[in-house]
Amino acid sequence: MDSIVVKGGSELRGQIHIAGAKNAALTLMPATLLSEEPLTLTNAPRLSDIATMTQLLQSLGAEITSMQDGKVQVMSTHGEINTTADYEIVRKMRASNLVLGPLLAREGHAIVSLPGGCAIGARPMDIHTDGLEKMGASIELKDGYLHAKAAGGKLKGAVIDFPFASVGATENIMMAATLAKGTTVINNAAREPEIVDLATCLRSMGAQIEGDGTSTITVQGVDRLGAATHPVVTDRIELGTYMLAPVFCGGEVECLGGRMDLVSSFVEKLDAAGVDVTETKAGLKVKRRGDRPKAVDVTTEPFPGFPTDLQAQMMAMLCLAEGTSVLEEKIFENRFMHAPELVRMGADIDVQGGTATVTGVAGLKGAPVMATDLRASVSLILAGLAAEGETVVNRVYHLDRGYEHVEEKLGAVGAKIERVQGS
Ligand code: UD1
């Protein structure tokens, strides 16, 4: 397995191009199942999670052509399709569950494997299935698979009140509702930019959706959806990650394609921590004001709150801050696995349940560390940028799920970073 070796201490200067959002692409791709006509995505990220979704959609009968080195994906699903999403593919990635709504809407039935355990928490699917049941589906769990059937072969509109603003459930129900009979209202819907991006794409395909970006989304079902070409929104998590890079080791980095509205709660915390973020014509420019960042308290929340997917990276930064910070993780119950790895690099972190208290230290020291999940891995690379000596991040397959060419992007702005091929 590959590892990434980082030698700390180099200032970073230059521009980093931010890719299209992984989490948007992973919901836009299954939307192709809703139409017999082609859906073309531009600005797609080049990631192993995208390859997994491609494999899953192909197993269902989609034809997918990847162009421009993977940046353009042309997908079409015409004629007969397979409605069983196999465990062997689904187990690799939770977002595979996003085929459930589209398959059910198109064919009136679907069999989708439950994704199984995930390192960062239990992540059940009850909000998805309760919503689909309200739309007239009967759903049974047999041998690890959800067997779903729409009464009379077609889903019908319903008013659905989510107990929690789940991103995936909002996406699944929104997609299912586009072809349902009648109107669906989702109350307490997630407001993430990826939801807005999906709604925008579905509208281009002919769907009638209002309210995306607010807590109430209304979808009026239509008989069919057509072809569309859609550019994937900028990845706000990759953006936030690279915005932090110059805070670790000094310098100034411009993140091309970055938009303030995608990261406003994060920028507020950066400002409080003594980091300047300025809008430029091409994106966002970031520079640390003093020699060290300052402590800030952070609580993760659904959008527009501070994203859980930037919590690990923020924790790594706060390890070097002046003062003590309290980080509260409110979205996932087990998302501090990077903490013991950061402690191995000299950080002072005390984790009690969903709360981590981080007392900043003047410097970190390089060490061999283990990547435990996607965002944890990148937090260790960031910490390595500031650490004295060499940090070896092992098990980087997690990283490749969500960050394209990380060593090239950071290397181009001056980081001493390389990938070592494993056996
Ligand atoms: C998506 C993102 C992930 C991000 C998360 C929260 C994708 C592919 N992934 O994941 O990167 O960290 O949003 O911003 O877009 N829950 C239930 N029952 C359900 C569904 C969710 O209890 O049916 C719980 C989960 O266990 C978790 C919380 O709700 O504690 C948030 O989950 P959700 O918003 O659904 O996240 P995902 O869509 O899985």
What can you see in these coordinates?
The protein is built from 14 helices and 24 strands. The protein is of the alpha/beta class and 423 residues long. The protein has a 4-stranded mixed β-sheet with strand order 22-23-1-24. The protein has a 4-stranded mixed β-sheet with strand order 2-15-17-16. A 4-stranded mixed β-sheet has the order 4-5-3-14, covered by helices on one side. α8 (236-249) runs parallel beside α12. The longest helix has 14 residues, at 236-249. It is elongated and about 65 Å long. The protein starts with a strand and ends with a strand. The structure holds uridine-diphosphate-N-acetylglucosamine (UD1). Uridine-diphosphate-N-acetylglucosamine binds at residues 23, 26, 94-95, 121-128, 164, 166-169, 194, 308-309, 331-332.
Write the layout of secondary structure elements.
Layout: E1 3-7, E2 12-17, H1 22-28, E3 39-42, H2 48-60, E4 63-67, E5 72-76, E6 84-85, H3 87-90, H4 100-107, E7 109-113, H5 126-134, E8 137-142, E9 145-150, E10 159-161, H6 167-178, E11 183-187, H7 193-204, E12 208-210, E13 216-220, E14 228-231, H8 236-249, E15 251-256, H9 264-272, E16 275-279, E17 283-288, E18 298-299, H10 311-318, E19 324-328, H11 338-344, E20 348-352, E21 355-359, E22 368-370, H12 374-386, E23 390-394, H13 397-402, H14 406-412, E24 416-420
Parallel strand pairs: 2-15, 3-14, 6-7, 10-11, 18-19, 22-23
Antiparallel strand pairs: 1-23, 1-24, 3-5, 4-5, 7-9, 8-9, 11-13, 12-13, 15-17, 16-17, 19-21, 20-21
Residues 23, 26, 94-95, 121-128, 164, 166-169, 194, 308-309, 331-332 line the site of uridine-diphosphate-N-acetylglucosamine (UD1).
